[in-house]
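Provenance

Sequences were taken from public entries as deposited. Structures were produced by running a predictor on each sequence independently, with no templates supplied. The record for GTPase Obg from Pseudooceanicola marinus is shown for reference.
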Amino acid sequence: MKFLDLAKVYIRSGAGGNGCISFRREKFIEYGGPDGGNGGRGGDVIAEAVEGLNTLIDFRYQQHFFAQNGQGGMGRLSTGRDGDDIILRVPVGTEILEDDEETVIADLTEVGQRVVLAKGGNGGFGNAHFKTSTNQAPRRANPGQDCVERTIWLRLKLLADVGLLGLPNAGKSTFLAATSNARPKVADYPFTTLHPNLGVVGVDGVEFVVADIPGLIEGASEGRGLGDLFLGHVERCAVLLHLIDATANEVAEDYQTIVNEIEAYGEGLADKPRVTVLNKVDALDEELREMQREFLEEVTGGLVMFMSGASGEGVTEVLRALRAQIDEDRLRRKKEEGGDEEDAPWHP
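Predicted structure for GTPase Obg:
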């Protein structure tokens, strides 16, 4: 299945049905009076987050979504039929934006979450609605309300606990393939990964989701390379796993390149917790490993871990470090939502 994370969509709600002007006409009933019914209501355009989708590719082939118009009222006080709603089924994590691609209409982050994007028009009143004691034969009815037309953008931001960052060929896809059932393309050349991949990783009986995006290069925040197109997919992550190729000549410069790019991108990425790891250490001896770690720790000012996605060395320790950061993030969110208070004792 092809990956698509941005789509332009044209939507239109249903117009309301017109009210009816009608009078009762039956044998032996001289003054039947008005019996025009009201028009039906137009259908809404609704977006709903559903399970089983992780791309917006369906919206490449269908961009127009029109709800049904309401039916007009009829005689004998018959109300017109309401128009059917139309539902846009989108992946969880989809942002819905105005035509300017900046104003957020809704952010669907939970399965079953819904938002009305265009409300259908109300049906018009038939002439029976306007009957009064002084006007018992009204000859007026309301037209139905017009439809609502708008252009919106759908932008998908994958929901994951961990986001993988690094230069091209840093071993991100190898790590994901080694720790999950995901099968990203792995090869010994840059930009093997062309679109994000998700994998479910487990350690000590606990599972979490890892997102792998194409590697970043210098100038990515200005549009160079591919990674800047997909940085939005790690905005929601609790922690970032920054992989540095231990076999590179300048590991400190490689680290700083990624940090500079996520700082330039903004959106709070630079403030997220990061686990920094020297990858591919199976290709180095002990002396060279320690030398590379010293160079890197001078720049990071924190702990740098060793790992080899190919041989499995250090992978469990890295996963445990990620899990600890995820647990801290969930605890923080719980406190922000007021869930940190101890349950008060129950009294009858």
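The CA atoms of residues 278 and 306 lie 5 Å apart.
The chain has two domains: 1-156, 162-336.
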